[in-house]
Design a protein that fits this description.
Largest sheet of chain A: 5 strands, mixed
Oligomer: heterodimer
Order of helices and strands of chain B: EEEHHHHHEEHHHHHHEEEHHHH
Largest interface: A-B, 35 and 40 residues
Helix content of chain A: 10-25%
Number of helices of chain B: 15
Structural class of chain A: alpha/beta
Number of strands of chain B: 8
Largest sheet of chain B: 3 strands, antiparallel
Number of strands of chain A: 7
Order of helices and strands of chain A: HEEHEEEEHE
Radius of gyration of chain B: 20 Å
Number of helices of chain A: 3
Strand order of the largest sheet of chain B: 1-2-3
Strand content of chain A: 25-35%
Strand content of chain B: 5-15%
Strand order of the largest sheet of chain A: 1-2-5-4-3
Radius of gyration of chain A: 15 Å
């Protein structure tokens, strides 16, 4: 499997991310270092006309939520692994409207707060329902 | 004066529940609010509490129409983690099942679209052809839905009589070329109901992450069977139909032409079915442990890209099963396609994105 895209790699060098790629099990993976900037990376992906695919959330042992942001770039899947801080992470909806429903369901399933959103209207659940319904241990509201 | 018109959750056009609140100025739609989740079953949560073999059965029930793609994606992801390589015959059989399922889904959608257009003769023709697909699926798998064909490392059943499926294929191709394509592409009544209606521009389709025939009707030509081949798709020749108008008629055309391409793939797969086994490891290990790691599998379902991400911690139960379905991305585009349209066209516009709420809600 070839490198995702030379220009993409070079652009990410500016953010200190250029040489962190690993191809494994169906995706290019980037485990985001401290310098990772989610919104800046989103802008880069959009400038390359990548398609937003999904966010996969997963509870970590330290109770933060691992978030894998997935993009399709010319048929190749690119996954950025990052995590919440105090269960919060900036929204990317204002940059990529495709992330709206995904952020809303991630909020419901894993109690992640996407900061900067105007609102987080329930998607699968209903107003007033508990959030964090997919967490292995329920979060008290 | 504006009117707020709630449509659903019991829908006039479709059998599955969702709710669309349309704000209308007279007969013109000026805004729309979507509500989904009426079919929410917590499939991801449930899959993280069952072993991998039970997981195959569970995810196949995400959807009654594209059930095969769910178990296929799940098995492909587990195969990446375990290193199990399905034999060549199994890969061909997976293609056959996937394309029959695409035909089944496209015939169903075409029939529903024809009914909403007001062309019930075509509805009957589509459903008669769909029955032939169901016969083929039933002959191969023993089931009309939830085929139970995929397993980790191959498929559960062989195709004993490819010739019988090829005969059914002949009948389907005749029906598509003689009835569906001429009507969808050339009929004036269809054009008057569909041309310029419910336009989704390429710009919006891209911004909303639209996939599948909906995106391909708006000029976005990606199809994972070509862009990121899986199973045995890289062995076969086929085209990816793309239209640029982005209206309901473009969606009809793309679906009709995709049906012909599915027949083309099926003919190649069935006539070149390799000899040999159709699975590798015995599937009966009740507690099937999977090496720790993360794997992603993507499949081009009838409605577009399905993504499964599986995270294993080395036990027999997945730590995380992520399911992202095509309609989950496509449904949000409806808000843009109904804006400025006639209220009476809204059921057809909604149905034209080929929605599946079972997939969306999971």
């Amino acid at each position: 499997m070839s490198n995702p895209k030379i220009g993409f790699d070079q652009t990410l060098h500016e953010y200190g991310l250029g040489e962190c790629w690993e191809w494994k099990n169906g995706s290019w993976w980037l485990t985001a270092p401290e310098t990772f900037n989610l919104r800046a990376t989103t802008r880069i992906m959009l400038s390359l006309e990548a398609r937003f695919v999904a966010i996969t959330a997963m509870e970590r042992e330290d109770k933060e939520i691992r978030l894998d942001y997935q993009w399709d770039l010319d048929g190749q899947l690119i996954s950025f692994i990052t995590a919440t801080s105090a269960r919060q992470i900036p929204t990317i909806v204002d940059l990529s409207p495709a992330a709206d429903w995904v952020e809303r369901e991630t909020h419901e399933y894993f109690a992640v707060e996407f900061t900067g959103r105007a609102n987080t209207i329930p998607l699968m659940t209903r107003a007033g329902d508990a959030i964090g319904i997919n967490l292995h241990k329920e979060i008290a509201q | 004066m504006s009117f707020r018109i709630p449509i659903g959750p019991y829908h006039p056009a479709l059998e599955e529940p969702y709710k669309l609140e349309l704000v209308c100025d007279g007969e013109t739609v000026s805004d729309a609010v979507m509500n989904v989740g009426f079919n929410f079953r917590g499939i991801e949560y449930l899959a993280e509490r069952r072993n991998y073999l039970q997981g195959i059965t569970l995810v196949e029930r995400v959807c009654g129409i594209c059930s095969n793609v769910h178990s296929l994606s799940f098995c492909q992801a587990v195969e990446q983690l375990t290193g199990a390589e399905p034999p060549e015959r199994a890969l061909h059989i997976r293609v056959v099942l996937s394309e029959l399922e695409r035909l089944h889904s496209h015939f169903l959608w075409s029939g529903v679209a024809a009914k909403l257009i007001g062309f019930k003769t075509v509805f009957m023709a589509c459903f008669a052809l769909r029955e032939k697909v169901m016969d083929a699926l039933s002959a191969i798998s023993g089931n009309r839905v939830n085929y139970g064909m995929n397993r980790i490392g191959g498929v559960n059943r062989d195709i004993a009589d490819p010739q019988a499926v090829l005969q059914i294929l002949d009948e389907m191709e005749r029906g598509i070329t003689r009835t569906i394509i001429p009507i969808f592409l050339e009929d004036k009544t269809v054009a008057s109901r569909c041309k310029g209606v419910g336009v989704l521009t390429a710009e919006y389709a891209k911004a909303m992450g639209a996939v599948g025939p909906l995106a391909r009707s708006s000029g976005i030509g990606q199809d994972l069977r070509k862009a990121s081949p899986y199973a045995a798709y890289d062995r076969f020749e086929f085209n990816v139909p793309v239209e640029t108008a982005g209206d309901v008629q473009a969606r009809l055309v793309v679906h009709a032409l995709e049906m012909m391409e599915s027949c083309r793939i099926l003919r190649q797969a069935l006539t070149s079915l390799p000899e040999g086994p159709f699975h590798t490891t015995p599937p009966t290990a009740a507690r099937f442990k999977v090496p720790a790691g993360t794997a992603i599998s993507r499949v081009e379902a009838p409605r577009g890209e399905v993504l499964y991400q599986i995270v294993s911690d080395g036990t027999d139960i997945p730590k995380r099963v992520r399911v992202r379905t095509p309609t989950f991305m496509n449904m949000a585009t409806v808000r843009f396609t109904v804006l400025g349209q006639e209220l009476a066209d809204s059921p057809l516009i909604q149905a034209s994105c080929d929605p599946c709420y079972s997939c969306t809600d999971r």
